[in-house]
Amino acid sequence: MNGLFLSPNEIQYYKWAIALLKESKYTSILGDWAMGKSTFAVNLGNITNQDVVHLNMVRDVGPFQKMPLKQSLYLYGMMTKHRNCILDGNAVDLELDERLEKSDAIVFFDGNTDDIISNFMTRLAKVFTGQEQRIGAHEFEGTESFNRINEILTRELETYKINKEMIKSKLKFFENKVVTVKNNTEVNNINVLIGF
């Protein structure tokens, strides 16, 4: 498949995953931060001609600041009133159970700590050198000092560890529609194979 070296089991899995994602009318993208969820969502939206809702833009108003939940729920409802969309982000307090139930496909980025830190530092360098503008780039505001970078890494790794276990426990009930992406190689594979 496209010059990638994949085992027969991997080929079968990717074929199933790509068919599922291309046919899905309501897709949830969840998982570890700095693994490329938002970029994947935008690319998938372009291929499937679906709207993408970035939940961090519904929930967050700045670094360490959240919009009041009632307002976030209202915005979320307004933005997702039609089924034909891709929801990007964890936002566990924004109707997570309902989102998982309604989803035709769920993509779960289940990264490891080394990949997350490496991706974060690469992303940080690209934003600061002007090579990229990132969705959710407010996370980099004030990152000019080592202490601030360390604060973000520590906060995200600790906070998400709790949310990740909760999300994984819920995904067990939806195994027939969950595509799991475990590392940077798998992120690249699925991006290439789906046509990004």
Explain what the structure shows.
This protein has helices spanning 8-23, 37-48, 55-59, 69-79, 96-102, 113-128, 146-171, 184-194; strands at residues 26-31, 51-54, 60-62, 65-66, 85-88, 105-109, 178-181. By secondary structure, it is α/β, with parallel strands linked by helices. It has a single domain, classed as P-loop containing nucleotide triphosphate hydrolases (Rossmann fold). Strands 2-5-1-6-7 form a five-stranded parallel β-sheet, with helices on both faces. It has a two-stranded antiparallel ribbon with strand order 3-4. The protein is globular. The two termini are 14 Å apart. The mean pLDDT is 82.
Q: Measured on Cα atoms, how large is the radius of gyration?
A: 17 Å
CATH overall fold name: Rossmann fold
| CATH top level class name | Alpha Beta
The class by helix and strand makeup works out as alpha/beta
CATH architect. name: 3-Layer(aba) Sandwich
Mean pLDDT, all residues: 82
* Overall geometry: globular
Number of helices: 8
Largest sheet: 5 strands, parallel
Q: Termini distance?
A: 14 Å
Low-confidence stretches: none
CATH homologous superfamily heading: P-loop containing nucleotide triphosphate hydrolases
Helix content: 40-55%
Spatial sequence of strands, sheet with the most strands: 2-5-1-6-7
Strand content: 5-15%
E-strand count = 7
Query: Which series of helices and strands comes N to C?
Result: HEHEHEEHEHEHHEH
Number of domains: 1
